[in-house]
Amino acid sequence: MLSTLRLLFALSRTPHGLLDMACPILVVFLWLGRLPSAEIMLIGLVTVFAAYTSGYAVNDLVDRIADRKRYGAGWSEAPGYLDATLPRHPLASGMLRTRHALVWAGAWGLVAAVGSFLLSPASFAIFIASIALEVGYCLLYRLTALRVFVSGVVKTLGPIAGVFAVDRSPLSTRLLLLFLWLFFWEMGGQNIPSDWTDIDEDRALGAKTIPVLLGPTWSGRLAFFSVSVAIALNVAFIVSAPGRGSIPYAVASVAIGAWLLVVPAVGLSASTSRSVIFRLFNWASYYPAALLAAALALKGIASL
C-alpha cells in the first residue's frame, strides 16, 4: 500500500503541487492585504491541495497513451528535474494501475468540488472549468502548439478562484493584471521548459509544442520575454492595490523574479542542456512560494 500511495503521489506530482499551493495563498494575501479568516484558510488549503492533486492526475490519465508512446522505446530519465522527484509518469510506465489512478483523481476531484462550492459558487465553476480545460490541453498535443495558451489559463484559474472565495465582486482591472502576471509566469517559467525536456520524444511523436515549433533559440527568447513581462505585471498588480500598494514589497518582488526567473532564463542563451532547462523550471516553481514568504515577512516587520 505504501508503494501504491507513493506512485499515486507521483501521478499527482505532489512535490510540485505543494509548491503550487503557495500561489493561491499569495494571491489572496495580496488581494486582501492580509490572510483570510481561519475558516476560509482551512477550507481553502484542503480545497487547493485536492484541486492540484486531482488536476495533475487528470493530466497523466488523459496523456497516458501519448506518454506510453513518448517513453515506450526507452524511458527518459530526468535527474534534477522537480517533476521527477518521484517516479515520472507512473501510469504510462505501467507501475500504476489505471483503476487506482481513476479512483485517486475522482476522490480528490470530489473533495475539491465540495470545497470550492463551500468557498463560493464562482470558485466551484472555475474549478470545473479548469478540469475541462486541462483535458482539452492534453487532447491538443498533436494539433497545435497554441495549446500553451490553454495551459496558461489553467494555471491562473486556481488563484482566481481564490480571489472569488474572498471577494464576490473583484475589481476587473486588478483581476486582469493578476491573470496576465500568472499567465506569462506559467508560459515562460513552466510550460516552455517543461515541454523542452521532452523535445526529442515530442518530435518523434509529432507533438506540437513551443520548443518543437520554434526550436531552442526562439524558445529561449520567448521564455526570457515571458518571465520578464511577468515580473513587470507582478509589480503593476502590487502597486494597484487600493491604499495597500507596497513599494518595498514591489522592489523585493523584482529581486525575487530576477533571481528565480530571469537568471535561469538568461542561462538558456548560453546553454540548452537539460540541466539548464531543469533549472529554469525548478526555480520558477519556487517563485510563488518565495513571493509569499517575502510578503509575510514584510507584513510582520510592518506590524512591529
Q: What does this protein structure show overall?
A:
This protein is mostly helical and 304 residues long. The chain has a single domain (2-302), classed as Farnesyl Diphosphate Synthase (Orthogonal Bundle). 78% of the residues lie in helices and 0% in strands. It has 14 helices and no strands. Helix 3 packs across helix 8 (147-166), helix 4 (38-62) packs parallel to helix 7 (121-139) and helix 12 runs antiparallel to helix 14 (287-302). The longest helix is centred in the last third of the chain and has 30 residues, at 210-239. The termini are far apart.
Q: Which characteristics define this entry?
A:
single chain, 304 residues, mainly alpha, Farnesyl Diphosphate Synthase, 14 helices, 78% helix, globular
Compile the SSE list and pairings.
Blueprint: H1 2-11, H2 14-20, H3 22-32, H4 38-62, H5 64-71, H6 98-119, H7 121-139, H8 147-166, H9 172-196, H10 199-205, H11 210-239, H12 247-270, H13 274-285, H14 287-302
Helix pairs in contact: 2-4, 3-8, 3-14, 4-6, 4-7, 4-8, 5-10, 6-7, 7-8, 8-9, 9-11, 9-13, 11-12, 12-13, 12-14
